[in-house]
Automatic annotation (TrEMBL):
UniProt-listed SUPFAM superfamilies: NAD(P)-binding Rossmann-fold domains (SSF51735), TrkA C-terminal domain-like (SSF116726)
Cited Pfam families: TrkA_C (PF02080), TrkA_N (PF02254)
Membrane-spanning intervals of the chain: none
Domain RCK N-terminal residues, every copy: 3-119
Name of the featured protein: Potassium transporter Trk
Location of the RCK C-terminal domain: 136-220
InterPro entries documented for this protein: NAD(P)-bd_dom_sf, RCK_C, RCK_C_sf, RCK_N, Trk_Ktr_HKT_K-transport
Source species: Clostridium isatidis
GO biological process, one term: potassium ion transport
Gene3D superfamilies with a match to the protein in the record: NAD(P)-binding Rossmann-like Domain, Regulator of K+ conductance, C-terminal domain
């Protein structure tokens, strides 16, 4: 697998978590913050950690910012700095930029100046928790894009012991099964003849517009 080079700018709770996760997935990660204690805290867990003011164009040039595949800008609270850093990173040649926004308006500004993906952590977490609360069978919910959602579904009792094809998951519910997690085993692209067992977890992709309908059907 090709490992990418990420630069994570801003090492608050969200940024440091992002940096650690990207590193654990086998990527090269440069973590940046102007707060020395935050940099020291993560130094042993990423490829490299540097104390640096990302609003300084020359400082960004000195680390070869243009050589990174992806920049993750997680300066969410200081909106002015977030926008300034984003503009600099864009102008210095990073091709793909992900940025954390404090609110919807901040997110709109970031998109206007060329951010490829805007993340609203609190809002996205709230949406996931809300969907999980609506249906006890929905274990996790990730918005894959504006059109598609990935869900982890605990197999309802009414499906236990039945074949996937007999439940008509795709035609009746709009659920496209990617895999089934069965204890420590993962069944990739299961066939219609696969029997669902108690405690199975279905990993599926659905159209986002069908989410509410599916929740109601599963909860019945």
């Amino acid at each position: 697998m090709y490992s990418k080079q990420f630069v994570v700018i801003g090492l608050g709770i969200f940024g440091s978590s992002m940096a650690r996760t990207l590193q654990s997935l086998g990527n090269d990660v440069l973590a940046i913050d102007k707060n020395e204690s935050l940099v020291q805290e993560i130094a042993d867990e990423v490829t490299q950690a540097v104390v640096l003011d990302a609003t300084d164009e020359n400082a960004l040039k000195s680390i070869g910012i243009n050589n990174f595949d992806v920049a993750v800008i997680t300066i969410g609270e200081d909106i002015q700095s977030s926008i300034m850093v984003t503009i600099l990173v864009k102008e210095l040649g990073v091709k793909y930029i992900i940025a954390k926004a404090k609110n919807d308006l901040h997110g709109k500004v970031l998109r206007k100046i060329g951010v490829d993906r805007v993340v609203l952590p609190e809002k996205e977490l709230a949406v996931r928790v809300a969907h999980n609360l609506v249906s006890s069978n929905i274990l996790d919910y990730i918005e894959f894009s504006s059109d598609y959602t990935i869900m982890e579904i605990q197999v309802p009792n009414k499906w236990v012991g039945k074949l996937i094809k007999d439940i008509r998951l795709r035609t009746k519910y709009g659920i496209n099964v990617i895999a089934i997690k069965r204890s420590e085993k993962v069944i990739i692209s299961p066939l219609g003849e696969e029997t669902l067992l108690k405690n199975d977890i279905i990993i599926s992709i659905i159209q986002s517009e069908d989410l509410n309908k599916i929740e109601k059907l599963i909860s019945k």
